Amino acid sequence: MRIRWSVVLVVTAAALGCSAAPAVALNNGVARTPPMGFNDWNAFGCNVNEQLIERSADAMVSSGMAAAGYRYVNIDDCWLSHTRNAAGDLVPDPHKFPHGIAAVAAYVHARGLELGIYEDAGDATCGAYPGSYGHDLEDARTFASWGVDYVKLDWCNTQGLNPQGEYRRMRDALLATGRPIVYSLSIWGVAFPWLWGPQTANLWRTTGDIKDSWQSVMQITALNAPLWRYARPGAWNDPDMLEVGNGGMTDTEYRTHFSLWAEMAAPLIAGTDVRRLSAPARTILTNRDVIAVDQDALGVQGHPVLRSGATSVWAKRLAGGDVAVLMLNSGDTPALVSAPLRKLGLRQTAHYVVRDLWTHRDTLSGPVLAAGVDRHGVAMFRVSPRSQASAPTVAVATSAATPYVAAGGPTRLTTTVVNSSPSTLHGLVVRPGLPGGWRSVPRVAAVGRLAPGASVTVTWDVQPPSAIGSWVTLHPAVSFSAGARPGSAGAPATLDVPPAPPHGSVDLTTIPWAYGSMTPTKGLSSRPRLNHSANDTPLKLNGVRYAHGLGVNAWSVVDYYLGGRCSSFTTDVGLDASVPMSKVLVQGTAQVSVLADGRVLFSRFMDWSMPTAHIDLPMTGVNELRLEVDATRDWIWGDAADWAGPRLQCQ
Ligand code: GAL
Predict the structure, then answer these.
(1) CB within 8 A of 302, min separation 6: which ones?
(2) CA of 77 to the centre of ligand 1 (A)
(3) How far is the CA of 208 from the centre of ligand 1 (A)?
(4) Which of 40, 76, 242 to probe ligand 1 with, by most ligand atoms within 8 A of CB?
(5) Cα(119) to centroid of ligand 1, in Å?
(6) Helix axes 136-146, 163-177, angle to 10 degrees
(7) What's the 305 CA to ligand 1 centre distance in angstroms?
(8) ω before 635 within 30° of 0 (cis)?
(9) Which long-range contacts (C-beta less than 8 Å, at least 24 apart) are formed by 316-322?
(10) How far is the CA of 162 from the centre of ligand 1 (A)?
(11) Could you give the CA distance from residue 241 to residue 394 in angstroms, rounded to a whole number?
(12) Taking Cα atoms as reference points, which of 594, 590, 648, 603 lies closest to residue 626?
């Protein structure tokens, strides 16, 4: 069937004056739910070729990704030859794509998948290959003749051009081909694309490029979430592709990334090597319960409804009256999160069936839903306003008295159990779920009875072994009976049991950090660099070389556990100008901060032209020293900072 392409007027709530959403939407018949697929860029950069694309298509089928809904196999930048042919047409690089793009499209189509391709609205792509400027009609025709099903149009090398006008030109060129082609704007949030994106394209990037770091996911989430009113079937905010599986985050953080993207009705474009998916990455990417939230026919983007400290509760209305509830804990310690369900857009009833989208268990809840949520984690539920015999909803959350649990020392943990269900729990027994080698008094707590809506807190006096120096995940668990049926519940809780605090006068580069994360620059790891800049050059600030220090790129957080034993911290800090400027000529700018137990002791906006800052700060009584480098509004390009010659004075 041939789909008729047209730009149609859609009467929306905006036309009736009740929302900020635009009144006109592109209706090209595709991407009625957020597109799902694969793209090579995040994992391979410019190293793309036909084998990679075809083997990735095979892997999407064999890994179960295709069956879970992933359809588009997208070629990103660097697939082209450096010049057009004599007729002015684009030519694929003959070494990378010796059989041409049409052959790759045929290969992909034969596996039930669809092919995507990348171009740029300017004179050249970001990788400096020929751009589509002045060639929209012939390029659109070329893509259609090759059997391309998805076009991503980037925004490099567009000096002086107007995004709306340029992107409309390619929209019309694609419409004129008569082939249904998903149209994706890689516009990085420039010129408020959510305002004109819906009538122009199927999806538009709302932010700069995603990176494989927790900070990147949190930054992008903060920018994309408020735009929820602009998403609708056929027109989606695009917070960029997925990093799940690339190694810079923990599995918990990748589950959070994937859950947030689904809650925000984001395109789910896997950006990892799908030929070598780890078991956890496959489990995350193919979680059908979470995918069903993303792909829900109502096409509403979920958003945060309740916030408290580092936790938030999100709601996404689903077709049929269910709501996808996401509880996010962006903090550094486990938390108990709860929400009255009537505040989340659910019809008020006495009972709700709650499906945990990560454990795939159905339970019955009363009017307030609670969950223990690990640090950097989520709990995600599909809540239905109906009653059905199922196990009770019970939340279990463990926390420590302080953010750090000292190895070897006595510490106090508490486990709170919330009975969210309408039934009384009998014979409730709570276990702390400690790893081997940890001692606890008591070892088990028998609580007895817990009424509907009630909670109970158990305190454990715990002694961890003396040599740990890393994260430890506890698995607190409860058992009970409800009616005649036995039941159980639990939720992991990750605590930081840091390395021993430093002694004497120490060079910070000689002691381990308790937590170190940075946003990787191309090809480098997501850990801060020791004695090198983030770009692997020698540390250098304003012409001065330093032998010792930490090289990081925004966004970055490095925490040290001082255990209250130190008196001062000294360091030089500034932006490292030896980091080459990116493809977009922007100078590095960053907000550089030092925090002590969460208090800001130093914070300065810095760029390359500024003098090096010499910092000397008191640390008396401080448990956690945090070195933080944040990007400013121009994203993270060129934002490499050096903590140069950092030293602590301790007892
Ligand atoms: C960026 C774009 C990335 C990738 C890259 C290729 O502008 O945001 O997703 O396509 O260009 O050079």
Answers:
(1) 228, 263, 264, 265, 293, 314, 315, 316, 317, 324, 326
(2) 7
(3) 9
(4) 76
(5) 10
(6) 40
(7) 32
(8) no
(9) 316/263, 316/265, 317/345, 318/293, 318/382, 321/346, 321/347, 321/384, 321/385, 322/382, 322/383, 322/384, 322/385
(10) 19
(11) 34
(12) 594
Q: What is the pLDDT of residue 252?
A: 97
**What sign does the dihedral 136-139-140-141 (CA atoms) show?**
positive
Per-residue pLDDT at 633: 67
Please give the Cα distance from 173 to 169 (Å, whole number).
6
Spatial separation of the C-alpha atoms in residues 28 and 398, rounded to whole Å: 50
59: enclosing H helix or E strand: helix 50-62
H helices of 489-642, where?
none
Model confidence pTM above 0.70: yes
Active-site annotation holds for 209: yes
Catalytic residue among 76, 77, 136, 154: 154
**CA gap 164, 166 in Å, rounded:** 6
Sign of the Cα pseudo-torsion (17, 21, 26, 31, in order): negative
Contact, 627 vs 508, CB < 8 A?
no
**Which residue from 48, 150, 156, 186 has its CB within 8 A of the most atoms of ligand 1, so it is best to mutate?**
186
Among the listed residues 264, 153, 135, 158, the one whose alpha carbon sits nearest the alpha carbon of residue 201: 153
| Bridge partners for 365 per DSSP | 352
Find out whether 219 and 518 touch, Cβ atoms under 8 Å.
Answer: no
By CB atoms closer than 10 A (0-12, 13-18, 19+), residue 570 is middle
Q: Give the nearest ligand 1 atom to 127 CA.
A: 12
Comparing 442 with 12, the larger pLDDT belongs to 442
Query: What span, in angstroms and rounded, lies between the C-alpha atoms of 511 and 178?
Result: 62
Instruction: Give the confidence band of 245 by pLDDT, cuts at 50, 70, 90.
Output: very high
Q: Is 229 left (phi over 0), alpha (psi -120 to 50) or beta?
A: alpha
Q: Pocket residues for ligand 1 (CB within 6 Å)?
A: 41, 76-77, 118, 126-127, 154, 156, 186, 209
> What average pLDDT score do residues 524-534 get?
84
Alpha-carbon Rg for the chain in angstroms: 26
Q: Which of 76, 120, 149, 209 is catalytic?
A: 209
Decide if 639 is catalytic: no
* Test site for ligand 1: of 42, 77, 203, most ligand atoms within 8 A of the Cβ: 77
Q: What is the tens place of the pLDDT at every residue in 119-174?
A: 999 999 999 999 999 999 999 999 999 999 999 999 999 999 999 999 999 999 99
For ligand 1, what atom is nearest to the CA of residue 208? 8
In this structure, what token pair is assigned to residue 582? 């990116």
